[in-house]
From TrEMBL:
PROSITE patterns: HTH_LACI_1 (PS00356), HTH_LACI_2 (PS50932). The keyword Transmembrane helix does not apply. SMART domains: HTH_LACI (SM00354). GO terms for molecular function: DNA binding. It holds the Pfam family Peripla_BP_3. This is LacI family DNA-binding transcriptional regulator. Residues 2-59 form the HTH lacI-type domain. Keywords: DNA-binding, Transcription, Transcription regulation. Gene3D superfamilies: 3.40.50.2300, lambda repressor-like DNA-binding domains. It comes from the Bacteria. InterPro entries: HTH_LacI, LacI/GalR-like_sensor, Lambda_DNA-bd_dom_sf, Peripla_BP_I.
């Protein structure tokens, strides 16, 4: 993997600054531009670039539901965006980025809609020129092509591992999300799968369910409040994102508990900073950069054919074990 020195050299800052940025040091005072540069370089160094293949110039539109500040709070969408941009560059595809609130009349051959959208927003996206592909949003029921993560498979990997390690009390820190314009709550699929699986095993305890926005700060606050108001806690927690997991880890450590001796924790996504925090975070790896690449190539394929129905591509995941979980010897 890329070292902190590698990132520092490319970013033009000190290794200490890189380390503090990647660990979300709240006392570090650097500009948002520097933070974004460090995060983007950290993601990019995990990406293997292929040889450039020239093709006829195509213009695609990328519509994101996250702004740049929200990208920095949870690097999941940043990583997918970088994959989109790099694959587009490789294939000589022009990408124009637009916010949902500022859609233009620019003619493009296709649109990648990255994030979560309500039905009114979907209707607006339908009016854009060219093919339409939703990424990280299942729009099949609305008749649209979609590229999504297999959350069920990933969550089951977590549960299977915890049970293998003899954990009988397992908690979850699920994510809270809302669509931007209507404020409609988006149910965390990872929590639904987690609850259903543990209920089948007669192991689910609602008192071990915490929920927070997908940020480090919210994860910290939720776990801090939980540990401050309970005398019993599970020996293992699954968090619906790495950002939530990192925040929860900080709260656990602030309460004098050890990870993984007192509480094991597994996140979801495997963003670049997961391996740099202390202890290094066990997580479900989503190949986010590759998802971005796949979004570009899939949209280009859609432009070349007339499919009778919409398609949904589901991307698998992997369990990556690091120091935040006990590993059976």
């Amino acid at each position: 993997m890329a070292t902190i020195k590698d990132i520092a050299k490319k970013a033009g800052v000190s290794p200490a600054t890189v380390s503090r940025v990647l660990n979300y040091d709240p006392e570090l005072s650097v500009s948002k531009e520097t933070e974004q540069k460090v995060f983007e370089i950290a993601e990019a160094l995990n990406y293997t670039k292929h040889k450039n293949k020239k093709r006829e110039l195509v213009t695609l539109r990328l519509v994101q539901w996250y702004d740049s500040e929200e990208e920095l709070a949870d690097l999941y969408y940043l990583a997918i965006r970088l994959g989109i941009e790099k694959k587009a560059e490789e294939l000589n595809v022009r990408v124009i980025k637009e916010a949902m609130s500022e859609l233009s009349d620019t003619q493009t051959q296709g649109t990648i809609a990255l994030g979560k959208f309500d039905q009114k927003q979907v209707k607006r996206l339908e009016n854009l020129s060219g093919e339409l592909l939703f990424v990280d949003f299942d729009a099949m029921s609305l008749g649209h092509n979609s590229l999504v993560v297999d959350f069920a498979q990933g969550v089951q990997l977590v549960i299977d591992h915890f049970i293998k390690e003899s954990h009988t009390e397992i908690g979850i820190l699920s994510g809270l999300e809302f669509t931007k314009e209507s404020g409609h709550e988006i149910t965390d699929t990872r929590w639904l799968v987690f609850r259903e699986s543990l209920q089948r095993l007669k192991m689910y305890q609602e008192s071990y369910h915490l929920a927070a926005d997908f940020t480090i700060e919210a994860g910290f606050a939720a776990m801090e409040n939980y540990l401050a108001t309970t005398e019993t806690y599970p020996s293992a927690f699954f968090a619906s994102s790495d950002a939530l997991a990192i925040g929860a880890m900080r709260a656990i450590q602030a309460h004098g508990l050890k990870i993984p001796e007192d509480i094991s924790i597994i996140g979801f996504n495997d963003v670049s900073v997961a391996k740099y925090v202390s202890p290094a975070l066990s997580t479900i790896r989503v190949y986010t950069e590759w998802m971005g690449e796949l979004a570009v190539t899939t949209l280009l394929e859609l432009m070349q054919e007339e499919a009778p129905v919409s398609r949904k591509i589901t991307v698998g995941t992997e369990l990556v074990l690091r120091d935040s979980t006990k590993i059976k010897k």
